[in-house]
């Protein structure tokens, strides 16, 4: 490619490495999938959460860990299943068919470096409703034994592997295909600003092409990044939660207020994102980041399987919050959601129609690049008020698990009715042979699993905020420094 051609598909200025460069990209690419498997095995319905041997490190043996974690008898090969992978692929195909077949809103994205705009079709909300209606009919006919719910619970680790395989395959496909991006191409393809370092591992992880698209016979053109952002993984998040609710009912004969709260919160969060689908066009994921393993894995594996850990925990050890507990968690959720949605709505309305009467009164500053930056309202409160709301909501997903941790005791000779409590602190499940689930010495240690989301999300949001800051410095230059004088705080005034 000639120098003049390269200038039309590459950004004017090279980007510095993120995530500590190639070594960091390699560690994250290998380490994050391992975290998903560790969470699945260390917190289970076989021995406890965490597995009992981790409470006594000096007596740890590999054989004991395998036994308590339920490691497959055929070893690592048991983590995958051709049947499960085939069903997961069918789910992805169904999502593609619904995107193509159902009516939707067509909207143009932000202006690309070439000056062109891509078109997007939005109907993720109606697609998700269609799938959930099918699940509702199946649940009405078969109850907690509906095949979808039992399939998810019985094949949990194989589902992780199947989605991980899809994420890896997509990452390799878009990386290889990105080398066919040519200047002035009629498909409006461009390389991402930060994804062409020349290092294979880093570029594969971060993503070389900005908006990779593919045309599938009958289905039509699919924007791979936009599809993964809000479709298979986000709906999968809800389906996992619902499967955990069904399992709790099947196990104990009731559904606890704690798992209901978490499932409702997370379902509302997902469907709010699906309803506001066009808002993704102004997000960094769409406008700036290339599509590589970072986004593919995050959308398809990390989000559904890590974000739903609390509901999976409660499926085995129900927590009863009572009226006061429910009210407290509802208050935390309401506060976070109000901040999150209000801030995002304010930004989206200002970007799409500055004359909208709901935001026309807001103050802003103009930049030399022709852009505008809000300096009042939520965005005068801090430079990322939506991140604060998002993190507050994260607490409402973990608080219902309480001081978490449990042990599973098999074959107890107690004679109790299905779902009865044991001394007010455990549960009995099973058929003729009862299984006790009690907290015991595991109490508190399970919080490493159920509150991991809160800690991780704080790190994620701070890192994302730092990336946003760097991107804005490059975009606005000296104007960004002037803006920072007007809006001093990054996320939370007085603290950060």
Q: What can you see in these coordinates?
A:
With 496 residues, the protein is an alpha+beta fold. The protein has 20 helices and 11 strands. The protein has a 5-stranded antiparallel beta sheet, with no helix packed on it. Strand 6 (364-366) and strand 7 (372-374) form a beta hairpin. Helix 2 packs parallel to helix 13 and helix 10 packs antiparallel against helix 11 (257-275). The longest helix has 31 residues, at 322-352. The model is unreliable at 1-8 and 413-424 (pLDDT under 50).
Characteristic terms for this protein:
496 residues, 11 strands, two-stranded antiparallel sheet, 5-stranded antiparallel beta sheet, disordered N terminus, 20 helices, alpha+beta, single chain
| Annotation, overall tally of beta strands | 11
Overall helicity: 55-70%
Shape: globular
- Biggest sheet statistics: 5 strands, antiparallel
**Averaged pLDDT:** 88
Alpha plus pi helix count: 20
Strand order of the largest sheet: 1-8-11-10-9
Percent of residues in β-strands: 5-15%
Estimated radius of gyration: 24 Å
Secondary-structure-derived class: alpha+beta
Through-space gap between termini: 45 Å
Poorly predicted spans:
1-8, 413-424
